[in-house]
Amino acid sequence: MVDPAYQGLHIEDELMKQIMSCFESLLYVKVMPSDPKTIPFYERYGFQQYDNYSAMVRKHFV
């Protein structure tokens, strides 16, 4: 969550990169978007939506 006054400065991208670096070795990472408008953001980081499933999932294949 980035303050609207600072959105568009790629702060959210840097935060997501740092967060995801902590979870690189996990098989699955799930997020629950609170706003449908944020779905494209999560898709940029490999998360996918599945039918009848509210969370978005990123799979890591080892």
TrEMBL record:
<dbReference type="InterPro" id="IPR016181">
    <property type="entry name" value="Acyl_CoA_acyltransferase"/>
</dbReference>
<protein>
    <submittedName>
        <fullName>GNAT family N-acetyltransferase</fullName>
    </submittedName>
</protein>
<dbReference type="InterPro" id="IPR000182">
    <property type="entry name" value="GNAT_dom"/>
</dbReference>
<feature type="domain" description="N-acetyltransferase">
    <location>
        <begin position="1"/>
        <end position="62"/>
    </location>
</feature>
<dbReference type="Pfam" id="PF00583">
    <property type="entry name" value="Acetyltransf_1"/>
</dbReference>
